[in-house]
Design brief:
By secondary structure, the protein is an alpha+beta fold. About 30% of the residues lie in helices and about 35% in strands. The chain has a single domain, classed as Chitinase A, domain 3 (Roll). It is built from three helices and four strands. The protein has a four-stranded antiparallel sheet with strand order 2-1-4-3, with helices on both faces. Strand 3 and strand 4 form a beta hairpin. The protein is globular, with a radius of gyration of 12 Å.
Length: about 100
């Protein structure tokens, strides 16, 4: 079973997602942006989703979480909830 420690920012607007990704690239604080802009309940935790198991998230995000490089901001990725910026902090495999 694979798990990952993940954080994300969820917004309704693609343009805002792109602007936030640029701010992150320029060194903005992820947690601060998540608290200010994310529409997910995780916003109050700075976007932290904590440890997630494969299959626990919406399919498009789940695939990303278990394939994208660690410690890199991915997105914007569209789901039925809006646009996500996702960072996989690290992944673990449990045997």
């Amino acid at each position: 079973m694979s798990t990952a420690i993940v954080r994300h920012i969820l917004v309704k607007d693609l343009t805002l997602a792109q602007q936030l990704k640029q701010k992150l690239a320029d060194g903005a604080d992820f947690a601060k942006l998540a608290k200010q802009h994310s529409t997910c309940n995780s916003a109050k935790r700075g976007g932290e989703l904590g440890e997630v198991k494969k299959g626990q998230l919406v399919t498009v995000i789940d695939r990303l979480v278990f394939s994208a490089p660690e410690k890199t901001i991915q997105g914007p990725v569209k789901s039925k909830f809006g646009y996500h910026l996702v960072e996989v902090k690290f992944r673990m495999s449990h045997f």
